[in-house]
Design goal:
It is a multi-pass membrane protein. It contains 21 helices and no strands. The protein is mostly helical. The longest helix has 42 residues. The radius of gyration is 23 Å and the shape is globular. It starts with 15 loop residues before the first helix and ends in a 13-residue tail after the last helix.
């Protein structure tokens, strides 16, 4: 059997009318509140429902991630206004404070999606936000290296559940063809945090001396208090999974579950945790190719976001003789804004074309070109253009890689575990990212730029090519019926439990 129009989709059976027979065991368990309505009426109701979901879910979750990314990277802005000197830290010690965040962050990430499912999002997410808000505030009153190290460890622990949790949570609400652009909008908050963080840090730093505290102390204290307050508000603004969402009517909950069932997602069913789901993720080769791809994107992301104020401050000496740390904060805004726009654009294109792998590959060329310019250009203007391309080549691939993984991993808990492992491994590479931009390498930072370029070439680009080719090959086998033997002798309910190992499940390329 050949792929329809040679365009692989998340499911070989993508049209709802043709899906009902093969998905009968899932759909049969979900009432249809619109039985008897015409197709035009159903479409209108579906558009209204989707708009309601978008307004209730995406904006607030995006705000949470903006705050999260702001809090984990503002230490780079604080360094520019005296943090390192005031605490008497060496360059190695400052890098260690960056590194320790990623150790706790990565260790605890794989387990957080199970906790999210057990405790419910409306409880789990507000609690971790309040925790890291407290950690951020305490960072503003530390007096030495040891105190900063301790608080950064607990900050990583507290933040570990947000990004994989929200990625998993959103995948349980939207169809595969809708998820990518929502994930892109959510993640674009990280790029906006880079822009907003620079502006906010430049303004707060002017409070130097207020209350006897340094400007960098006020950056941590005010942003920490803001995070805590948003965490409290999240008890009312973060919702639970579709079958429990209190902002939907009973009929709308049924509509959400039914549209997931028609998309062959077990998110439409209640699923109890079993260790089999964990081992299914561990044994799946896609978990490891996804981890390699995400490693390339995330390692580059953290190197960029932590050190771009420092990189730009070095460029600034060649832009203007009256250059200041505040101007460095402000010059970091445009590259992040461009990255945010491209992130959402790529999410939209990938949803429409269902070619997430090709989108990753194409965007990675921007990042490789950008860091090549940072390595090779002599002019400050050329290297600043490299910063633009670097941001545009990194940020879109984060959301796109998570969407790619989610599209191709079926089963509520298996998907949660896979996303946790992939994101946890990617963030573990923040340990490398925290130590590659050394003081002794300025102003050109050849080792740092070289390592990021290697990550982009070997892991982001190379991993995306490998996964794309392997998925394409597997799709061909399934469409030719070479995997049909996997379900011989099984009834429909047993086939449904196979998730993405079902022979009729066609991977998103």
């Amino acid at each position: 059997m050949a792929l329809e129009d040679d365009k692989p989709t998340a499911s070989r059976l993508s049209d709802p009318e043709r899906d009902l027979d093969l998905k009968g065991s899932i759909v049969a368990g979900v009432d249809d509140p619109d039985e008897g309505r015409s197709e035009e009426e159903r479409a209108a109701i579906d558009r209204k429902l989707l708009w309601k979901l978008d307004l209730r879910l995406v904006p607030w979750l995006s705000l949470l991630y903006l705050v999260s990314f702001l809090d984990r990277t503002n230490i780079g802005n604080a360094k520019l206004v005296g943090l390192q000197d005031d605490l008497g830290m060496s360059n190695a010690q400052f890098n260690a404070t960056l590194t320790i965040f990623f150790v706790s962050y990565s260790i605890f990430e794989p387990a957080t999606n199970i906790l999210l499912k057990r405790l419910r999002p409306s409880i789990f997410i507000p609690l971790i936000m309040m925790s890291w808000g407290i950690c951020m505030t305490l960072m503003g009153i530390v007096h030495n290296y040891a105190g900063l190290m301790a608080v950064r460890w607990f900050l990583g622990l507290s933040e570990a559940g947000l990004f994989p949790g929200v990625g998993y949570f959103l995948s349980c609400w939207y169809k595969r063809s809708e998820f990518g652009v929502r994930m892109a909008i959510f993640f674009s908050a990280a790029a906006l945090a880079g822009s907003f963080g620079g502006l906010l840090a430049a303004a707060i730093a002017k409070m130097h001396g207020v209350g006897g505290l340094a400007g960098w102390s006020w950056i941590f204290i005010l942003e920490g208090l803001l995070t805590f307050l948003i965490g409290v508000a999240s008890f009312w603004c973060v919702y639970d999974f579709p079958d429990q969402a209190r902002f939907l009517s009973s009929d709308d909950r049924k509509r959400v579950l039914r549209r997931l069932a028609l998309d062959q997602q077990s998110s439409a069913e209640h699923e109890e945790f079993k260790m089999d789901y964990f081992w299914a993720s561990v044994k799946d080769w896609k978990t490891y190719t996804g981890a390699v791809i995400y490693m390339g994107a995330d390692g580059a992301l953290y190197a960029f976001s932590l050190f771009v104020p420092t990189i730009i401050s070095e460029l600034g000496n060649r832009f203007s003789c009256c250059y200041s740390s505040i101007r460095a904060q402000l010059l970091s805004v445009p590259p992040y804004a461009a990255a945010a726009i491209l992130t959402v654009t790529v999410g939209y294109i990938a949803d429409r074309t269902r070619q997430r792998g090709l989108c990753n590959i194409a965007v990675s060329f921007l990042g490789m070109a950008g860091f090549s310019m940072l390595l090779g250009c002599e002019s400050a203007g050329g290297r600043y253009a490299g910063v633009f391309l670097g941001a545009m080549g990194i940020y879109p691939t984060i959301a796109n890689t998570i969407s790619w993984t989610s599209n191709n991993t079926e089963g509520v808990y298996k998907r949660g575990v896979s996303i946790g492992i992939i994101i946890g491994w990617g963030n573990l590479n923040g340990i490398v990212s925290s130590n590659i931009y050394r003081e002794e390498d300025k102003p050109r930072y050849y080792p740092g730029h070289g390592v990021v370029l290697a990550y982009l070439v070997l892991f982001l680009f190379g991993g995306s090519v490998v996964q794309y080719l392997l998925l394409r090959r597997e799709n061909g086998k399934r469409c030719r019926g070479e995997r049909d033997a996997w379900v011989e002798g099984m009834d429909q309910s047993q086939v449904d439990l196979l998730g993405d190992q079902r022979p009729d499940f066609i991977y998103t390329l």
